[in-house]
Design goal:
three-stranded antiparallel beta sheet; 2 domains; alpha/beta; 40% helix; Aspartate Aminotransferase, domain 1; Aspartate Aminotransferase, domain 2
Amino acid sequence: MRLADRMYRLKKESAFVVLAKAKELERQGRDIVHLEIGDTVFDTPSNIIDEAYAQMKEGQTHYCPSAGLLELREACCEWFRRDGRGNYRPGEIVVGPGGKPFLYYVIMTLAGPEDEVIYPDPGFPVYESVTLYAGAKPVPLPMLEENDFRFTPDDLGSRVTERTRLIILNYPHNPTGGTLARAELDAIAEIAIENDIVVLSDEVYAHMLFEGEHISIGTLPGMRERTIMLESFSKTYAMTGWRLGFVAAPTWLAEPLTWLITNSVSCVPPFVQHAGARALLDDQAESQAMMEDFRRRRDSFIPDLNEIQGISCKSPEGAFYAFPNVSQLPMSAEEFADYLLEQVGVATLPGSAFGSHAEKHLRMCFATSVENLEKAIDRISEAVAQLGQ
């Protein structure tokens, strides 16, 4: 018995590996503060839950079109228009089981052997993993702390070749919290147009921007027909477990993406889609309140981290992650992450889980309760003090 060779190209996602280890420690009676997984302490708003329940009772539990219910796709179009992120038609919206599957669908649609995919490093690990699985070559684009976790047009342009099929952007960015300004997006667009490259714009944290204005690259001149904009309900509406996401894409890409939905999951449950439409069209006050709470958590957690000797952390512009530099401590970031979990019960992720250019960092999700963040600071301070003894 053997697996297909391509299975060995896939990489494990460390967040779920650490989560499983932390949960096992909890089963053994340990008290663990979870900063490892990109989830929030908030519950899904009640209007969304009520809509799903009502739709289940109405019988919305059967198959539906693979691209998604028209009601939800229309709601997505309205949501984008309201946010100034583009005027789309329902035929340009494809609904899937979360945002993550679309990374697989898009890369498998556009890249194969001898093709190249440029992606941010550090970055969401699925970008590299699925590119390898597709048989294509992943080309990391460094986003270094000394450059405020940004890249320049020259950085990008120097990595483009005649084999480049896809550029992946993620802003606000996981894990660094960085974002992209208009001038940077203009330069990226110029490179994409000049070299006839598609851009996958992962914007699942677009509503979690603490400074400035979010601009979707698909709204720039010449970019609509070459941009796939990825969105998810997971972060904005605290719906991580619902597995609901969507893309806005030109019709020439929307159709093959739909084929992959048909051939993998058939469709997203219709009662989930109706709940998603309710989330997009109803009053946004509860979601906006969550975003403000994330800002308050950032504004207390980051300064507290910087008070710990040997740790330095830039304040993220968006998303809900701290990305502290721990290179001044007497052990590697990977060793320190293990030490925090095993010795003081704080689950974090080593930066190396996000690429080769993040080995000096940890990622910590601050979307948990204020009480847990205070407990984490106390425990991390204690752990660092013990290292100095």
